[in-house]
Write a structure and sequence with these properties.
globular, two-stranded antiparallel ribbon, 11 helices, 16% strand, two-stranded antiparallel sheet, 45% helix, alpha+beta
């Protein structure tokens, strides 16, 4: 795969976009009530509980599995991304609970490393697709689609999302950091997702638009 070129013009465009506005309390309560009611009817309470712990990690890309109410990244060993440079599934025999979320590891050594410094190994943006958080949407995130950038773990919804993020890593990280800090962190994942799927950010691009941008970048074709 050829190296994707830098896009300084895209950086300037994105930096000129308005800052995300905080939700008004009445609008957020109204939307939240509707989304939560719909989510409960469609999927029951397990996904809501799994993704929204009452802790500093809310929301997280977690699932309910057996006795585990919140299993991070479906049990992926978050330490292995750093020590082995690849996705490795953890096992129930080696587990830790941090901020109400269960993490599994492939070995006792990896569990010990995590327990000594959990913040070092936590995936960014709650383990949701980093490219989704660029648009304020906590959605997706496959354990085997990832990148470690500057010592931090980023999870993506697949290779296409990872390639789109790579078009402008500094710009996309800045946007994702901003939206995570100002909107997503501490919010209910279902409410936030519904909000930003309807009221899209100014720089929103569809999956097709992003795929076309990646293709142009690889071909060296101007925008």
């Amino acid at each position: 795969m050829s190296k994707l070129p830098d896009h300084d013009s895209a950086n300037r465009l994105r930096s000129s976009q308005p800052q995300p506005e905080p939700w008004s309390s009445p609008a957020r309560r109204l939307l939240g009530a509707g989304v939560l009611a719909t989510a409960v009817l469609l999927s029951g309470c397990s996904a809501l509980v799994a993704q929204n712990p009452s802790s500093a990690l809310r929301p997280v890309n977690a699932v309910a599995e057996g006795e585990e109410k919140r299993l991070m990244l479906q049990g992926a060993d978050v330490v292995a991304y750093f020590t082995q440079g690849r996705y490795v599934p953890g096992i129930p025999a080696h587990r830790s609970v941090y901020e109400g979320v269960t993490f599994r590891f492939a070995s006792a050594e990896h569990k010990a490393l995590f327990d000594a410094a959990p913040q070092k190994y936590l995936p960014q943006y709650g383990g949701y697709c980093a490219n989704g958080i660029v648009y304020g949407i906590p959605w997706g995130g496959d354990a085997d689609a990832y990148r470690v950038i500057d010592g931090k773990l980023y999870i993506f919804g697949g290779a296409a999302s990872r390639d789109a993020f790579a078009l402008d890593v500094p710009g996309n990280r800045a946007l994702a950091d901003r939206y995570w800090t100002q909107e997503v962190a501490g919010a209910n994942s279902f409410v936030q997702r519904a909000w930003r799927l309807v009221w899209r950010v100014p720089h929103y691009q569809s999956g097709q638009q992003l795929a076309e941008a990646v293709a142009r970048a690889r071909a060296g074709t101007p925008k």
